[in-house]
């Protein structure tokens, strides 16, 4: 089955791509609809990133409940506790598998998240 790309981006990537029953969401960063990094700390940035993940999933007809795996990059591991509190609100039951690492990020942000969803056609 060929892949299907959803959404547009100002960089060479698709926000979401379906490959069979899986939907892959590109790494989402804490930018608002104007493309500006949201003000605030890890809590505000995590909320925006997860809103962006949700929006990318919706392009492919998925919801947060369909997410089976996430990968998270935190700019500072000391933000893990606050990040985890916000993240848990978005996955209140049956949370996906997750990998979380500390990493220098491509722009001056505190968090980036990519996701994989499973939703049979």
From TrEMBL:
GO molecular function: hydrolase activity
Listed EC numbers: 3.5.-.-
InterPro entries (UniProt xref): RidA, RutC-like_sf, YjgF/YER057c/UK114
Key words of the record: Hydrolase
Pfam families: Ribonuc_L-PSP (PF01042)
Family, similarity comment: Belongs to the RutC family.
Name of the molecule in the record: RidA family protein
Taxonomic source organism: Chelativorans intermedius
């Amino acid at each position: 089955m060929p892949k299907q790309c959803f959404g547009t981006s100002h960089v060479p990537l698709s926000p979401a791509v379906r490959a069979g029953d899986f939907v892959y969401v590109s790494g989402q960063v804490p930018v608002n609809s104007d493309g500006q990094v949201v003000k605030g700390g890890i809590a505000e940035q995590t909320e925006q990133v997860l809103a962006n993940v949700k929006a990318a999933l919706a392009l492919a007809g998925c919801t947060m409940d369909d997410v089976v795996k996430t990968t998270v990059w935190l700019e500072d591991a000391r933000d893990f506790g606050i990040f985890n509190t916000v993240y848990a609100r978005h996955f209140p039951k049956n949370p996906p598998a997750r990998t979380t690492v500390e990493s220098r990020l491509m722009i001056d942000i505190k968090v980036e998240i990519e996701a994989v969803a499973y939703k049979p056609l």
